[in-house]
Amino acid sequence: MSTPVPLADIEAEAARLTSAFAARGLTVRLIGGLAVARHRHRDVPATLSREYGDIDLVILPKEGKAFRSAMAELGYVPNVRFNNMRGDRRMLFADEPNGRKLDVFVGGFQMCHSMDLADRLSLHPETLSPADLLLTKLQVVEVNRKDLTDALTILLTHEVAAPDARGAEPDHISSDRLVRITSMDWGWYTTFTDNLARLPGLAAELLGPAEAEAVGGRARGLGDVLAAAPKSLKWRARNAVGRRVPWYDLPDEIGGPIDAQS
Question: In the predicted model, is pLDDT for residue 221 greater than 50?
């Protein structure tokens, strides 16, 4: 039997992959823009639509070997050198027929800031929870319009409520989750709230008055909740240093020598 070929339509391919992983009993979840697209739950204005270039996933560390085997069966080519060197935390695969990359985070998310996701993957059958997606979108210090637009889409299509919504439809953004992350780490808090404060202005630009007001209210309300939450001793100590010292990491650049196929 021939190996399946990844689908040209990237959203259809993401759906094919999530179904295939579930059939194999693997706990694999979409992150990134395609995950936001799976969470829309309603029509959104055309101003929030965008194209997707790559597929991003997160997996459990203990399932790495089985995941690699599944990727080969599903028509993907591993970046052998990268995966051998960094496979305990990140892996890369190529969809050669469609010229696309598939980026895999192992057990957590590490870019400008890091968070453990191993105990979060059961909240939704296909993607991260809305709160975790919002964290991944607003953790970039030099955030781009694409990520801000995705964050805006999450806020437009989800109410905000305190607890996590395990398996609920429609789901919501858990303010408890956002508080847990940002009240322990001043860096997370600073980057996240800096970017959250940009959303009302973008909403006014991209949405009609009623929707812009709704999203702006949610963003400002979340900012107030995060500001008022009790902070850890570590958070307060780092706050005393402030912005004089960098509070973020520079993400690894994929595309240099380590990304060369071998």
Answer: yes
CA distance 210 to 207: 8
Dihedral over alpha carbons 24, 30, 35, 41 (to 10 degrees): 30
Give the whole-angstrom CA distance, residue 117 versus residue 134: 13
**Considering only 31-40, 57-66, 82-91, 252-261, which range has the smallest mean pLDDT?**
252-261
Per the listing, tokens 């997707």 go with 52
pLDDT mean over 198-212: 97
Q: Is the peptide bond before 125 cis (omega within 30 degrees of 0)?
A: no
127 strand-pairing partners:
30
How far apart are alpha carbons 157 and 136 in whole angstroms? 17
Q: 3-class SS at 192?
A: helix
Beta bridge partners of 166: none
Q: In whole angstroms, what separates CA 222 from the centre of its chain?
A: 18
* Alpha-carbon radius of gyration of the chain: 19
Distance CA 115, CA 107 (A): 9
Q: Where are the domains of the chain?
A: 10-259
**CA distance from start to end of the chain:** 26
- Residue 100: strand pairing partners: 95
